Protein backbone atom coordinates (compact mmCIF):
# COMPACT_ATOMS: atom_id res chain seq x y z
CA UNK A 1 0.00 0.00 0.00
CA UNK A 2 1.38 3.39 -0.97
CA UNK A 3 1.43 5.89 1.83
CA UNK A 4 -0.26 9.19 0.97
CA UNK A 5 0.55 12.27 3.02
CA UNK A 6 -2.04 12.64 5.78
CA UNK A 7 -3.88 9.51 4.55
CA UNK A 8 -6.13 11.16 1.91
CA UNK A 9 -5.25 11.32 -1.78
CA UNK A 10 -4.73 14.75 -3.33
CA UNK A 11 -8.03 14.76 -5.24
CA UNK A 12 -10.03 14.13 -2.09
CA UNK A 13 -8.11 16.84 -0.26
CA UNK A 14 -8.70 19.31 -3.06
CA UNK A 15 -12.44 18.58 -2.95
CA UNK A 16 -12.50 19.22 0.81
CA UNK A 17 -10.50 22.44 0.40
CA UNK A 18 -12.96 23.66 -2.23
CA UNK A 19 -15.78 23.06 0.25
CA UNK A 20 -13.83 24.97 2.89
CA UNK A 21 -13.41 27.93 0.55
CA UNK A 22 -17.14 27.96 -0.17
CA UNK A 23 -17.85 27.84 3.56
CA UNK A 24 -15.46 30.72 4.24
CA UNK A 25 -17.13 32.75 1.51
CA UNK A 26 -20.55 32.53 3.25
CA UNK A 27 -19.79 32.58 6.97
CA UNK A 28 -22.06 30.33 9.03
CA UNK A 29 -23.76 28.77 5.99
CA UNK A 30 -23.80 24.96 5.98
CA UNK A 31 -22.20 23.78 2.76
CA UNK A 32 -23.13 20.24 1.68
CA UNK A 33 -20.09 18.08 2.10
CA UNK A 34 -19.37 14.44 1.50
CA UNK A 35 -16.41 13.47 3.60
CA UNK A 36 -13.98 10.96 2.12
CA UNK A 37 -13.66 7.85 4.21
CA UNK A 38 -11.29 7.81 7.14
CA UNK A 39 -10.15 4.75 9.08
CA UNK A 40 -12.33 5.65 12.10
CA UNK A 41 -16.04 5.50 12.80
CA UNK A 42 -18.44 8.44 12.62
CA UNK A 43 -18.79 10.03 16.02
CA UNK A 44 -15.04 9.91 16.60
CA UNK A 45 -14.39 13.02 14.61
CA UNK A 46 -14.29 12.07 10.94
CA UNK A 47 -15.50 15.56 10.00
CA UNK A 48 -12.68 17.21 11.88
CA UNK A 49 -10.03 14.76 10.71
CA UNK A 50 -10.95 15.16 7.05
CA UNK A 51 -10.62 18.94 7.34
CA UNK A 52 -7.30 18.63 9.16
CA UNK A 53 -6.00 16.09 6.62
CA UNK A 54 -6.91 18.36 3.71
CA UNK A 55 -5.11 21.36 5.24
CA UNK A 56 -1.96 19.79 6.70
CA UNK A 57 1.37 20.55 5.09
CA UNK A 58 4.81 19.26 6.04
CA UNK A 59 5.58 22.38 8.10
CA UNK A 60 2.39 22.35 10.14
CA UNK A 61 2.26 21.63 13.85
CA UNK A 62 -0.90 20.06 15.13
CA UNK A 63 -2.58 20.29 18.51
CA UNK A 64 -5.57 18.06 19.24
CA UNK A 65 -7.87 18.31 22.24
CA UNK A 66 -11.03 16.55 23.31
CA UNK A 67 -13.12 18.22 26.06
CA UNK A 68 -10.18 20.64 26.36
CA UNK A 69 -7.72 17.87 27.16
CA UNK A 70 -4.65 16.93 25.14
CA UNK A 71 -4.49 13.59 26.89
CA UNK A 72 -7.81 11.84 26.23
CA UNK A 73 -7.69 8.65 24.18
CA UNK A 74 -9.39 10.36 21.26
CA UNK A 75 -6.94 13.29 21.22
CA UNK A 76 -3.92 11.02 21.55
CA UNK A 77 -5.15 8.74 18.77
CA UNK A 78 -5.83 11.57 16.32
CA UNK A 79 -2.38 13.09 17.01
CA UNK A 80 -0.75 9.69 16.55
CA UNK A 81 -2.65 9.14 13.32
CA UNK A 82 -1.32 12.34 11.73
CA UNK A 83 2.19 11.80 13.09
CA UNK A 84 2.16 8.40 11.42
CA UNK A 85 0.53 9.37 8.11
CA UNK A 86 2.00 12.85 7.65
CA UNK A 87 5.11 12.80 9.79
CA UNK A 88 4.21 16.23 11.09
CA UNK A 89 5.11 17.63 14.47
CA UNK A 90 2.52 17.88 17.20
CA UNK A 91 2.31 20.08 20.25
CA UNK A 92 0.15 20.70 23.29
CA UNK A 93 0.89 24.43 23.22
CA UNK A 94 -1.66 26.48 21.33
CA UNK A 95 0.84 29.21 20.50
CA UNK A 96 3.10 26.69 18.74
CA UNK A 97 0.28 25.09 16.74
CA UNK A 98 -0.76 26.03 13.21
CA UNK A 99 -3.81 23.77 13.29
CA UNK A 100 -5.81 23.06 16.44
CA UNK A 101 -8.39 20.28 16.12
CA UNK A 102 -10.89 20.31 18.96
CA UNK A 103 -14.03 18.68 20.22
CA UNK A 104 -16.43 20.06 22.85
CA UNK A 105 -14.37 23.17 23.70
CA UNK A 106 -13.07 26.37 22.12
CA UNK A 107 -9.39 26.68 23.10
CA UNK A 108 -8.97 28.94 26.12
CA UNK A 109 -5.49 30.06 25.04
CA UNK A 110 -5.18 33.09 22.81
CA UNK A 111 -5.59 32.35 19.11
CA UNK A 112 -3.76 34.27 16.39
CA UNK A 113 -4.17 35.01 12.70
CA UNK A 114 -1.96 32.30 11.25
CA UNK A 115 -3.95 29.55 12.96
CA UNK A 116 -6.84 27.33 11.94
CA UNK A 117 -9.17 25.81 14.53
CA UNK A 118 -11.00 22.67 13.35
CA UNK A 119 -14.16 21.64 15.21
CA UNK A 120 -15.76 18.22 15.18
CA UNK A 121 -19.54 18.64 14.92
CA UNK A 122 -22.17 15.99 15.58
CA UNK A 123 -25.31 18.07 14.87
CA UNK A 124 -24.59 20.95 12.50
CA UNK A 125 -28.09 22.40 12.12
CA UNK A 126 -29.69 24.15 15.13
CA UNK A 127 -33.01 24.28 13.26
CA UNK A 128 -33.35 20.51 13.33
CA UNK A 129 -34.42 20.93 16.96
CA UNK A 130 -37.49 22.68 15.56
CA UNK A 131 -38.26 20.94 12.27
CA UNK A 132 -37.81 17.34 11.21
CA UNK A 133 -37.43 18.11 7.55
CA UNK A 134 -34.01 19.08 6.21
CA UNK A 135 -35.75 20.76 3.27
CA UNK A 136 -37.83 22.93 5.60
CA UNK A 137 -34.73 23.78 7.65
CA UNK A 138 -32.89 24.80 4.46
CA UNK A 139 -35.83 27.01 3.47
CA UNK A 140 -35.76 28.66 6.90
CA UNK A 141 -32.01 29.35 6.65
CA UNK A 142 -32.41 30.70 3.12
CA UNK A 143 -34.92 33.28 4.33
CA UNK A 144 -33.43 33.85 7.79
CA UNK A 145 -36.79 32.64 9.07
CA UNK A 146 -35.68 32.23 12.67
CA UNK A 147 -38.81 33.31 14.56
CA UNK A 148 -39.22 29.87 16.10
CA UNK A 149 -35.80 30.08 17.72
CA UNK A 150 -36.82 33.24 19.52
CA UNK A 151 -40.20 31.74 20.42
CA UNK A 152 -38.33 28.90 22.13
CA UNK A 153 -36.18 31.38 23.99
CA UNK A 154 -39.30 33.31 25.02
CA UNK A 155 -40.92 30.05 26.14
CA UNK A 156 -38.02 29.34 28.47
CA UNK A 157 -38.31 32.71 30.11
CA UNK A 158 -42.09 32.61 30.51
CA UNK A 159 -43.29 28.98 30.56
CA UNK A 160 -43.97 27.23 33.81
CA UNK A 161 -42.64 23.99 32.31
CA UNK A 162 -39.12 25.34 31.77
CA UNK A 163 -37.67 23.54 28.76
CA UNK A 164 -34.27 24.88 29.69
CA UNK A 165 -31.72 25.61 26.97
CA UNK A 166 -28.79 23.27 27.32
CA UNK A 167 -25.60 24.73 28.75
CA UNK A 168 -23.79 23.72 25.57
CA UNK A 169 -24.36 23.87 21.79
CA UNK A 170 -26.21 27.15 22.28
CA UNK A 171 -26.98 28.58 18.82
CA UNK A 172 -25.25 31.67 17.48
CA UNK A 173 -26.03 34.14 14.73
CA UNK A 174 -23.16 34.73 12.30
CA UNK A 175 -22.72 38.26 10.88
CA UNK A 176 -26.37 38.82 11.80
CA UNK A 177 -27.39 36.39 9.07
CA UNK A 178 -27.00 32.63 9.53
CA UNK A 179 -28.01 30.66 12.58
CA UNK A 180 -25.14 28.31 13.42
CA UNK A 181 -24.32 25.54 15.86
CA UNK A 182 -21.09 26.28 17.73
CA UNK A 183 -20.75 22.48 18.16
CA UNK A 184 -21.28 21.08 21.68
CA UNK A 185 -19.05 23.61 23.43
CA UNK A 186 -20.13 25.09 26.77
CA UNK A 187 -22.31 28.17 26.38
CA UNK A 188 -19.59 30.38 27.82
CA UNK A 189 -17.21 29.37 25.02
CA UNK A 190 -19.53 31.06 22.50
CA UNK A 191 -18.02 34.44 23.28
CA UNK A 192 -14.61 33.14 22.17
CA UNK A 193 -15.93 32.41 18.68
CA UNK A 194 -16.63 36.09 18.14
CA UNK A 195 -14.07 38.32 16.43
CA UNK A 196 -11.52 35.51 16.55
CA UNK A 197 -8.25 36.15 14.65
CA UNK A 198 -7.98 32.47 13.64
CA UNK A 199 -9.93 30.73 10.87
CA UNK A 200 -12.53 28.39 12.37
CA UNK A 201 -13.84 25.40 10.40
CA UNK A 202 -16.63 23.08 11.50
CA UNK A 203 -16.87 19.61 9.98
CA UNK A 204 -19.85 17.25 10.36
CA UNK A 205 -19.13 14.10 8.38
CA UNK A 206 -22.15 12.01 9.29
CA UNK A 207 -24.56 14.90 8.67
CA UNK A 208 -22.61 15.89 5.54
CA UNK A 209 -22.18 19.56 6.34
CA UNK A 210 -19.22 21.89 6.61
CA UNK A 211 -19.29 25.52 7.70
CA UNK A 212 -16.72 28.10 8.66
CA UNK A 213 -15.92 31.44 10.23
CA UNK A 214 -13.28 33.62 8.57
CA UNK A 215 -11.06 35.66 10.91
CA UNK A 216 -12.79 38.45 12.83
CA UNK A 217 -16.32 37.28 12.09
CA UNK A 218 -19.16 38.69 14.20
CA UNK A 219 -20.65 35.80 16.17
CA UNK A 220 -23.48 36.53 18.63
CA UNK A 221 -25.27 34.08 20.85
CA UNK A 222 -29.01 34.12 20.28
CA UNK A 223 -30.60 36.62 22.68
CA UNK A 224 -33.30 39.26 22.88
CA UNK A 225 -32.47 42.92 22.31
CA UNK A 226 -33.36 43.73 25.89
CA UNK A 227 -32.13 40.54 27.62
CA UNK A 228 -28.40 39.99 27.15
CA UNK A 229 -26.99 36.52 26.55
CA UNK A 230 -26.11 34.77 29.81
CA UNK A 231 -22.88 32.82 29.29
CA UNK A 232 -23.50 30.80 32.46
CA UNK A 233 -20.37 31.64 34.43
CA UNK A 234 -19.02 29.15 37.01
CA UNK A 235 -20.61 28.72 40.39
CA UNK A 236 -19.07 30.48 43.35
CA UNK A 237 -16.61 28.54 45.40
CA UNK A 238 -15.67 25.97 42.80
CA UNK A 239 -11.95 25.84 42.14
CA UNK A 240 -9.67 23.60 40.12
CA UNK A 241 -7.87 21.16 42.44
CA UNK A 242 -4.75 21.32 40.22
CA UNK A 243 -4.19 25.05 39.61
CA UNK A 244 -6.70 26.63 42.00
CA UNK A 245 -8.40 28.64 39.26
CA UNK A 246 -12.07 29.50 39.84
CA UNK A 247 -12.66 31.27 36.52
CA UNK A 248 -11.94 28.64 33.91
CA UNK A 249 -14.41 26.02 32.67
CA UNK A 250 -14.30 23.18 35.21
CA UNK A 251 -15.06 19.50 34.73
CA UNK A 252 -16.29 17.15 37.41
CA UNK A 253 -13.28 15.10 38.41
CA UNK A 254 -14.49 12.48 40.84
CA UNK A 255 -16.35 11.97 44.07
CA UNK A 256 -14.08 11.90 47.08
CA UNK A 257 -14.63 9.35 49.84
CA UNK A 258 -16.56 11.93 51.82
CA UNK A 259 -18.95 12.44 48.90
CA UNK A 260 -17.65 15.87 47.96
CA UNK A 261 -17.15 16.83 44.33
CA UNK A 262 -13.80 17.80 42.98
CA UNK A 263 -13.32 20.02 39.99
CA UNK A 264 -10.55 20.37 37.50
CA UNK A 265 -9.94 22.69 34.55
CA UNK A 266 -11.21 21.20 31.32
CA UNK A 267 -8.46 22.98 29.32
CA UNK A 268 -5.36 21.02 30.35
CA UNK A 269 -2.88 23.35 28.66
CA UNK A 270 -4.07 26.47 30.47
CA UNK A 271 -4.36 24.55 33.73
CA UNK A 272 -0.78 23.29 33.50
CA UNK A 273 0.48 26.80 32.73
CA UNK A 274 -1.32 28.19 35.77
CA UNK A 275 -0.07 25.35 37.95
CA UNK A 276 3.53 25.98 36.82
CA UNK A 277 3.36 29.74 37.36
CA UNK B 1 -73.71 57.85 -2.99
CA UNK B 2 -70.95 56.78 -0.65
CA UNK B 3 -67.92 55.54 -2.47
CA UNK B 4 -66.77 52.12 -1.26
CA UNK B 5 -63.10 51.73 -0.44
CA UNK B 6 -61.37 49.08 -2.57
CA UNK B 7 -61.72 45.55 -1.19
CA UNK B 8 -58.94 44.11 0.98
CA UNK B 9 -59.35 40.79 -0.75
CA UNK B 10 -61.16 39.59 -3.83
CA UNK B 11 -61.72 36.03 -4.92
CA UNK B 12 -62.36 35.98 -8.62
CA UNK B 13 -64.06 32.86 -9.98
CA UNK B 14 -62.21 30.30 -7.88
CA UNK B 15 -62.77 26.58 -8.29
CA UNK B 16 -61.33 23.62 -6.47
CA UNK B 17 -61.56 19.92 -7.10
CA UNK B 18 -64.12 18.36 -9.42
CA UNK B 19 -67.04 19.32 -7.16
CA UNK B 20 -65.81 21.11 -3.99
CA UNK B 21 -65.93 24.66 -5.28
CA UNK B 22 -67.17 26.03 -8.57
CA UNK B 23 -66.59 29.56 -9.90
CA UNK B 24 -67.03 31.27 -6.51
CA UNK B 25 -66.35 34.98 -6.12
CA UNK B 26 -66.36 37.35 -3.18
CA UNK B 27 -64.98 40.68 -2.03
CA UNK B 28 -64.05 41.52 1.56
CA UNK B 29 -64.00 45.20 2.48
CA UNK B 30 -62.00 46.98 5.19
CA UNK B 31 -63.57 46.64 8.64
CA UNK B 32 -66.22 44.24 7.37
CA UNK B 33 -67.41 40.98 8.94
CA UNK B 34 -68.38 38.66 6.11
CA UNK B 35 -69.86 35.27 6.94
CA UNK B 36 -69.77 32.26 4.66
CA UNK B 37 -72.78 30.17 5.60
CA UNK B 38 -73.83 26.80 4.27
CA UNK B 39 -74.39 23.16 5.10
CA UNK B 40 -71.41 20.92 5.59
CA UNK B 41 -69.91 20.06 2.23
CA UNK B 42 -71.02 23.35 0.68
CA UNK B 43 -67.37 24.35 0.14
CA UNK B 44 -67.09 27.05 2.84
CA UNK B 45 -63.87 25.86 4.44
CA UNK B 46 -62.22 25.34 1.06
CA UNK B 47 -63.17 28.87 0.05
CA UNK B 48 -61.83 30.20 3.36
CA UNK B 49 -58.50 28.42 2.96
CA UNK B 50 -58.12 29.73 -0.58
CA UNK B 51 -58.86 33.26 0.65
CA UNK B 52 -56.35 32.88 3.50
CA UNK B 53 -53.49 31.98 1.18
CA UNK B 54 -53.37 28.41 2.44
CA UNK B 55 -54.75 26.51 -0.57
CA UNK B 56 -54.09 27.33 -4.21
CA UNK B 57 -57.32 27.20 -6.22
CA UNK B 58 -57.56 25.01 -9.29
CA UNK B 59 -58.96 27.94 -11.25
CA UNK B 60 -59.48 31.63 -10.52
CA UNK B 61 -57.47 34.17 -8.58
CA UNK B 62 -57.16 35.66 -5.10
CA UNK B 63 -56.38 39.37 -5.41
CA UNK B 64 -55.09 41.92 -2.92
CA UNK B 65 -55.25 45.71 -3.32
CA UNK B 66 -53.07 46.83 -6.19
CA UNK B 67 -53.90 43.73 -8.20
CA UNK B 68 -51.45 41.52 -6.32
CA UNK B 69 -52.37 37.94 -7.13
CA UNK B 70 -51.77 35.86 -4.01
CA UNK B 71 -50.94 32.56 -5.65
CA UNK B 72 -48.68 34.08 -8.29
CA UNK B 73 -46.31 35.34 -5.60
CA UNK B 74 -43.11 33.40 -4.87
CA UNK B 75 -43.74 30.94 -2.02
CA UNK B 76 -41.70 32.83 0.57
CA UNK B 77 -43.33 36.16 -0.31
CA UNK B 78 -46.72 34.53 0.18
CA UNK B 79 -45.58 33.07 3.53
CA UNK B 80 -44.37 36.40 4.86
CA UNK B 81 -47.40 38.27 3.52
CA UNK B 82 -49.69 35.75 5.23
CA UNK B 83 -47.77 36.11 8.48
CA UNK B 84 -47.87 39.89 8.40
CA UNK B 85 -51.34 40.65 7.11
CA UNK B 86 -53.50 37.63 7.98
CA UNK B 87 -54.57 35.79 11.11
CA UNK B 88 -56.20 32.36 11.05
CA UNK B 89 -58.46 30.69 13.62
CA UNK B 90 -59.11 27.01 12.95
CA UNK B 91 -62.03 24.87 14.00
CA UNK B 92 -59.57 22.65 15.89
CA UNK B 93 -57.16 24.65 18.05
CA UNK B 94 -54.55 21.93 17.57
CA UNK B 95 -54.19 23.04 13.96
CA UNK B 96 -52.73 26.41 14.88
CA UNK B 97 -51.52 26.11 18.48
CA UNK B 98 -48.29 24.46 19.59
CA UNK B 99 -49.56 22.21 22.38
CA UNK B 100 -46.02 21.74 23.74
CA UNK B 101 -45.49 25.48 24.23
CA UNK B 102 -46.90 27.82 26.86
CA UNK B 103 -49.92 30.00 26.15
CA UNK B 104 -47.63 33.02 26.22
CA UNK B 105 -45.27 31.55 23.64
CA UNK B 106 -48.23 30.63 21.45
CA UNK B 107 -49.46 34.20 21.44
CA UNK B 108 -46.01 35.70 20.95
CA UNK B 109 -44.89 33.45 18.10
CA UNK B 110 -46.46 35.54 15.29
CA UNK B 111 -44.50 38.52 16.61
CA UNK B 112 -41.21 36.61 16.45
CA UNK B 113 -42.14 35.26 13.02
CA UNK B 114 -42.55 38.87 11.94
CA UNK B 115 -39.11 39.83 13.22
CA UNK B 116 -39.74 40.96 16.81
CA UNK B 117 -36.57 40.46 18.89
CA UNK B 118 -37.52 42.36 22.05
CA UNK B 119 -38.54 40.25 25.04
CA UNK B 120 -40.31 42.96 27.03
CA UNK B 121 -42.41 44.12 24.09
CA UNK B 122 -43.41 40.54 23.19
CA UNK B 123 -44.34 39.74 26.78
CA UNK B 124 -46.36 42.94 27.13
CA UNK B 125 -48.23 42.11 23.91
CA UNK B 126 -48.91 38.55 25.10
CA UNK B 127 -50.28 39.89 28.40
CA UNK B 128 -52.38 42.53 26.66
CA UNK B 129 -53.98 40.03 24.28
CA UNK B 130 -54.46 37.48 27.03
CA UNK B 131 -56.44 40.08 28.94
CA UNK B 132 -58.30 41.25 25.82
CA UNK B 133 -59.58 37.70 25.35
CA UNK B 134 -60.67 37.44 29.00
CA UNK B 135 -57.99 34.91 29.87
CA UNK B 136 -56.52 34.71 33.37
CA UNK B 137 -53.03 36.24 33.47
CA UNK B 138 -51.97 33.63 36.02
CA UNK B 139 -52.23 31.00 33.30
CA UNK B 140 -49.89 32.58 30.74
CA UNK B 141 -47.29 29.93 31.48
CA UNK B 142 -49.69 26.99 31.09
CA UNK B 143 -49.90 24.83 28.01
CA UNK B 144 -53.07 24.96 25.89
CA UNK B 145 -53.83 21.31 26.66
CA UNK B 146 -55.00 22.18 30.19
CA UNK B 147 -57.35 24.92 28.92
CA UNK B 148 -61.07 24.45 28.29
CA UNK B 149 -62.30 24.38 24.70
CA UNK B 150 -63.55 27.96 24.91
CA UNK B 151 -60.24 29.18 26.38
CA UNK B 152 -58.31 27.42 23.64
CA UNK B 153 -60.38 29.19 20.99
CA UNK B 154 -59.77 32.51 22.71
CA UNK B 155 -56.06 31.72 22.82
CA UNK B 156 -56.15 31.04 19.07
CA UNK B 157 -57.85 34.39 18.50
CA UNK B 158 -55.26 36.22 20.62
CA UNK B 159 -52.52 34.55 18.59
CA UNK B 160 -54.25 35.43 15.34
CA UNK B 161 -54.59 39.13 16.25
CA UNK B 162 -51.40 39.90 18.19
CA UNK B 163 -49.45 41.12 15.14
CA UNK B 164 -52.21 43.47 13.97
CA UNK B 165 -53.38 41.69 10.81
CA UNK B 166 -55.71 43.29 8.25
CA UNK B 167 -57.84 40.17 7.90
CA UNK B 168 -58.87 37.54 10.42
CA UNK B 169 -60.05 34.23 8.96
CA UNK B 170 -62.18 32.03 11.20
CA UNK B 171 -63.32 28.49 10.44
CA UNK B 172 -66.30 27.50 12.62
CA UNK B 173 -64.66 29.10 15.67
CA UNK B 174 -67.51 28.21 18.03
CA UNK B 175 -67.86 24.56 17.06
CA UNK B 176 -67.92 22.19 20.01
CA UNK B 177 -68.54 24.99 22.52
CA UNK B 178 -71.63 25.09 24.73
CA UNK B 179 -74.16 27.89 24.17
CA UNK B 180 -72.74 30.11 26.92
CA UNK B 181 -69.17 29.79 25.68
CA UNK B 182 -70.36 30.44 22.11
CA UNK B 183 -72.14 33.63 23.13
CA UNK B 184 -69.13 34.81 25.09
CA UNK B 185 -66.78 34.17 22.19
CA UNK B 186 -68.99 35.99 19.70
CA UNK B 187 -69.36 39.01 21.99
CA UNK B 188 -65.59 39.16 22.37
CA UNK B 189 -65.09 38.86 18.62
CA UNK B 190 -67.57 41.67 17.95
CA UNK B 191 -65.91 43.93 20.50
CA UNK B 192 -62.43 43.18 19.17
CA UNK B 193 -63.59 43.76 15.63
CA UNK B 194 -64.92 47.18 16.56
CA UNK B 195 -61.83 48.30 18.43
CA UNK B 196 -59.22 46.92 16.01
CA UNK B 197 -61.12 47.45 12.77
CA UNK B 198 -59.85 44.12 11.49
CA UNK B 199 -61.86 42.62 8.64
CA UNK B 200 -63.22 39.15 9.30
CA UNK B 201 -64.11 36.30 7.01
CA UNK B 202 -65.95 33.74 9.12
CA UNK B 203 -67.22 30.32 8.16
CA UNK B 204 -70.21 28.85 9.96
CA UNK B 205 -73.05 26.44 9.32
CA UNK B 206 -75.24 28.32 11.78
CA UNK B 207 -77.10 31.42 10.65
CA UNK B 208 -77.64 32.44 14.30
CA UNK B 209 -73.92 33.08 14.58
CA UNK B 210 -73.95 35.09 11.36
CA UNK B 211 -76.85 37.17 12.70
CA UNK B 212 -74.87 38.05 15.84
CA UNK B 213 -71.70 39.15 14.12
CA UNK B 214 -71.92 39.57 10.33
CA UNK B 215 -72.38 42.70 8.27
CA UNK B 216 -72.97 40.61 5.20
CA UNK B 217 -73.65 36.92 4.55
CA UNK B 218 -72.83 34.73 1.57
CA UNK B 219 -74.81 31.51 1.31
CA UNK B 220 -72.92 28.62 -0.23
CA UNK B 221 -74.49 25.54 -1.73
CA UNK B 222 -72.76 22.70 -3.57
CA UNK B 223 -69.57 24.69 -4.12
CA UNK B 224 -71.19 27.90 -5.36
CA UNK B 225 -72.35 31.23 -3.89
CA UNK B 226 -76.14 31.22 -4.24
CA UNK B 227 -77.21 34.26 -2.24
CA UNK B 228 -75.72 37.38 -0.72
CA UNK B 229 -77.44 39.70 1.76
CA UNK B 230 -77.17 41.47 5.11
CA UNK B 231 -78.14 38.94 7.82
CA UNK B 232 -81.44 40.57 8.79
CA UNK B 233 -82.67 40.69 5.21
CA UNK B 234 -81.53 37.12 4.61
CA UNK B 235 -83.35 35.81 7.68
CA UNK B 236 -86.50 37.82 7.00
CA UNK B 237 -86.61 37.00 3.31
CA UNK B 238 -84.45 34.07 2.19
CA UNK B 239 -84.76 33.67 -1.57
CA UNK B 240 -82.69 30.62 -2.51
CA UNK B 241 -83.87 27.20 -1.24
CA UNK B 242 -80.50 26.68 0.49
CA UNK B 243 -80.96 29.96 2.36
CA UNK B 244 -84.50 28.97 3.33
CA UNK B 245 -83.13 25.67 4.72
CA UNK B 246 -80.59 27.58 6.82
CA UNK B 247 -83.28 29.91 8.17
CA UNK B 248 -85.48 26.91 8.99
CA UNK B 249 -82.56 25.30 10.86
CA UNK B 250 -82.23 28.36 13.14
CA UNK B 251 -85.18 27.43 15.33
ZN1 LIG C 1 -6.74 24.06 36.66
TrEMBL record, chain A:
Enzyme Commission number, as recorded: 4.7.1.1
Pfam families registered for this protein in UniProt: PhnJ (PF06007)
Catalytic activity: alpha-D-ribose 1-methylphosphonate 5-phosphate + AH2 + S-adenosyl-L-methionine = alpha-D-ribose 1,2-cyclic phosphate 5-phosphate + methane + 5'-deoxyadenosine + L-methionine + A + H(+)
InterPro entries associated with the record: PhnJ
GO biological process: organic phosphonate catabolic process
Keyword annotations: 4Fe-4S, Iron, Iron-sulfur, Lyase, Metal-binding, S-adenosyl-L-methionine
GO molecular function: 4 iron, 4 sulfur cluster binding; alpha-D-ribose 1-methylphosphonate 5-phosphate C-P-lyase activity; metal ion binding
Function, as annotated: Catalyzes the breakage of the C-P bond in alpha-D-ribose 1-methylphosphonate 5-phosphate (PRPn) forming alpha-D-ribose.
Family of the protein in this entry: Belongs to the PhnJ family.
Protein name: Alpha-D-ribose 1-methylphosphonate 5-phosphate C-P lyase
UniProtKB/TrEMBL annotation, chain B:
ABC transporter domain: residues covered: 2-247
Superkingdom as given in the UniProt entry: Bacteria
Transferase listed as a keyword: no
UniProt GO MF annotations: ATP binding; ATP hydrolysis activity
GO terms of biological process kind: organic phosphonate catabolic process
Pfam families linked to this entry: ABC_tran
Gene3D superfamilies associated with the record: P-loop containing nucleotide triphosphate hydrolases
PROSITE patterns, A to Z: ABC_TRANSPORTER_1 (PS00211), ABC_TRANSPORTER_2 (PS50893)
Keywords tagged on the record: ATP-binding, Nucleotide-binding
InterPro entries to which the protein is assigned, alphabetical: AAA+_ATPase, ABC_transporter-like_ATP-bd, ABC_transporter-like_CS, P-loop_NTPase, PhnK
Similarity-based family: Belongs to the ABC transporter superfamily.
Protein's name according to its UniProt entry: ABC transporter domain-containing protein
Organism annotation: Metarhizobium album
Amino acid sequence: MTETFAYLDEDSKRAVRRTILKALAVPGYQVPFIAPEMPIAYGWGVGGMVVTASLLGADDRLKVTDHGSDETVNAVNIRAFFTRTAGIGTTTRTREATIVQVRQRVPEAELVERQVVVYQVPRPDPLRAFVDSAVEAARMHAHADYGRVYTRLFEEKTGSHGAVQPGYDYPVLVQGRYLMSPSPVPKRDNVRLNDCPAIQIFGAARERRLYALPPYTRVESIAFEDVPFDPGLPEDGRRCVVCGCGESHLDHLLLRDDGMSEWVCSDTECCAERADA
Amino acid sequence: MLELPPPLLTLDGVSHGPRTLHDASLSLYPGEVLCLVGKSGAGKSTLLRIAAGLLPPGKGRALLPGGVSLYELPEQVLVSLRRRRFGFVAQDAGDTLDMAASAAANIAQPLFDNGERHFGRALAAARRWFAALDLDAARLGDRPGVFSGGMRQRLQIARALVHGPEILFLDEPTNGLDTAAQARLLTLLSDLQRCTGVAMLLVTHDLRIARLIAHRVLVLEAGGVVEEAPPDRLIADPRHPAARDLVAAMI
